[in-house]
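Subject: sequence -> structure tokens, single chain

Hey, anyone have a minute? Need the predicted structure for the following. Not urgent.
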Amino acid sequence: MQKNISSFFQRQPPPNIESSSSTSKPLKIVLDDLPWDPSERKPISSYHPSQKDEIRRTYLLRGPCQPKGKKQIFHKHLLVMVIS
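Reply:
Had a minute. Here:
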């Protein structure tokens, strides 16, 4: 009895993609209300295709996320490598 390769695998339905942003109308987004912290940001791919460049540009113009609060004082030490 000879089996073909398809008998070893089960067919799975395609993954359900939540990002139906390409088929829907873009939502009005206030660029000043976008979160500064990268951990709080939605992925760029979750926005409507016509808004992705504008949102990406806004994040780039803001610059890096600098945490606010108590500043740590880092001591500068001379790192010496000893070769024996």
